Structure formats: structure tokens, C-alpha cells
Amino acid sequence: MARKLKSDKFLFMAMLLLVCTSVVMVYSASAVVLDQRHENPYLFLVKQGTWALLGLFLVQVVMRIDYRHYRQPVVIWTGLVVVGVALVAVLFGRPINGATRWLNIGPLGIQPSELAKVLIVLFIAALLERRMERIDEPAYALLPIGVVLGAIVLLILEQPDLGTAASIVVIAGVMIFSAGISYRYVAGLAIMAIPTLYFLLLTDYRWRRVQAYLNPWADPLGDGYQMIQSMIAVGVGGVFGRGLMDGVQKLFYVPEPHNDFIYAVISEELGLIGATVVLVCFCVITWRGLRTAIRAPDRFGAFVAIGITTMVAFQAFFNISVVLGLLPTKGIPLPLVSYGGSSLLINLVGMGILLNVSQHASSSHIVTTALPTADA
């Protein structure tokens, strides 16, 4: 008799709680400002609520599709070609805040770089599954990944969007490392990345962000403004917070309070307790995602679980660290929480795939052949 497939309830509930928090906090963070500027305080609430419902519907659909269908070359390469064309097309679009990241399809604005994250995960997972036994032969196992990854990252950097490009590189790096690549290759790649990182930081506005991070009070009304206002919001929230809708820093002080700095609004209005609940949800997703990877029935499922878990966990870690003043300001939204249809939708699709892998994961033993340890 076939085993009845059951999804990971902890993983699903953590995801659902974050999405519900998103709808509520996006409204709280944006209502007053929208009422002043557009006389419609419910504009972002309606949009985010609509995307959330659509995303949760897609979760129910995707989690019922066997993840092993995604290893088919026709699926992966068709997706990569579509994303590549879309990334080129956005470069000819109208700049918004100095960047061209959106592809307008009718009334909808789509960010192809968000979809690129999931497709890169599937591509690397499928390739590592087939070539993992020779992972320490760069020309055989790593060169194809480097070519595709490099093309996608360069197109995203042209927008420019360093945050998303960095996220994709981190996702790829974690997946390759989990395949058992020798530490000497990891050290070599890290050394090779230093000049690239230095070159990217030479850009004037990025270097100013680093300086503002080191000493935000040197320019409290300029480059240090975002970080200072964010830390004030976190600090005044205390343990229990000011109360939902009663935050002050979101009122023309914290920039993008409904987007990149929504965790600051959560901290001010819901206090340490609310901020901790959100953080715990991401910890649960990370824990259950890695557990799914360890118990996956095959290597493809294991790598997909690692990639999607890294996609969510890294963005959450980076965004929260920026809000708390632990990292320089960078436009990486809080996954599943920040305002934005493309980001929310793609992250929920990724969670749907992860939930499907969890359905097939072994509950009785650990599949040790899926993820070997790295050679010394």
C-alpha cells in the first residue's frame, strides 16, 4: 500500500504566519503615508492581500506536483531562457529610483530576477545530482554552473541589483559546498572573489553605504539616516511595543517602512516579542528545510531543499541584520513579509516546492548518500 504523503506542518505554519504578518504589517506601515499622498490608506493592503491569496493558492498547487518533474532538462532550460530574455528586456525599461528591475505585463509588474533564484536552484540541483561524483573536477562539474550563473548574475548587476546578485551567488555557493567540494577549491574561490567584491564596492554610492554603516552619526541626515532611524524604531519598541498601528518612525522617518525596513516597524509596534516571533518563524523554516534536505529520498531533492532554504534564510538574515545596524544598508526585502508581489509570489512558489520535497522525505531514517561531507 502506497504511503500517504504528508507535508511538514511546522514548515507550513511558519510560512503561513509570516504571510499573515506581512498583510497586517504592510497595512500598518503604509496606511498613514498613503492616506496623505493618495487618499487611499488601503492601496497596499489590497495589493499585498491579493498577492498573498494568489501565492497561497499556488503553494497548494505546487506542493502537489512531484518535485522530480523539475529535473527534466526541458523544464530547466526553458525556464532559464525565458528568465534570460526577461532580464535583457528589463534593461530597456523605464528606470525606477535609478534601476530597471521591472518588466511590465499589462497592469502587473514582474521582477525576473526573483524567478531567477528558483530556476538557478533547480539547475544547480539537477547538474550536481548527475555530476557530484566528480565534483572536484572543475571543468566537468563546476564550469557549466559558472557559465550559467555568471550570465544571470551579470544581467542582474546591469539593472543594477547587487543584493539579488549576491543572494544568487550565496545560494549557489552553499549548494556546491554541500555537494562535498574540497575545501581547497572553496578557499580558492573565496580569494578570487575578493577583487570582484572590491571592484563592486568602488561604486560611489555603495562605498558611502559602507562608511555610513561604520559611522552613521557622521552624516545623520544623509547616508546614515536610514540606519539611525531604523535603530531608533527598534529601540523605542521595547519588550511589548507601542501597539499595532501606533508606530511613529514609519511616519516619514524610516524610508520604505513597508518594504526593506518592515522589520523595524514590527519591532517598534510589536516590540521584542513580535520581532522574536518573526525571527523564530525563519529559524523554523531553516530548521525544517535542512531536515528535509537530510531526509530527502534522492540527491536532487536534497539539493533543491538546501537551495530554497538558503534562499529564504539568507535574505531574512541579511535584511534583519541591516535593520539592526549589523550590516550596511542594502535593498534586500524580508522574504514572505516585505511588500512586493514578485518577491512574495516567487518565495511562496519556492516554499511549495520545499513542502513537496518534505512530503517525500523519509521519516524513519536519514538518507546519508544524498549529501556527502567535503574532503579535507
Description:
This protein has 376 residues and is mostly helical. It has one domain (18-360). The chain contains twelve helices and two strands, in the order αααββααααααααα. It has helices at 9-37, 43-62, 73-90, 112-131, 138-157, 162-178, 183-201, 204-214, 225-236, 262-295, 299-323, 341-360, and strands at residues 103-105, 108-110. Strands 1-2 form a two-stranded antiparallel sheet. Helix 1 runs antiparallel to helix 12 (341-360), helix 2 packs parallel to helix 12 and helix 4 (112-131) runs parallel beside helix 6 (162-178).
Q: Which key phrases capture this entry?
A:
376 residues, mainly alpha, two-stranded antiparallel ribbon, 12 helices, 2% strand
Please describe the topology of this protein.
Blueprint (H helix, E strand, L loop, with lengths): L8 H29 L5 H20 L10 H18 L12 E3 L2 E3 L1 H20 L6 H20 L4 H17 L4 H19 L2 H11 L10 H12 L25 H34 L3 H25 L17 H20 L16
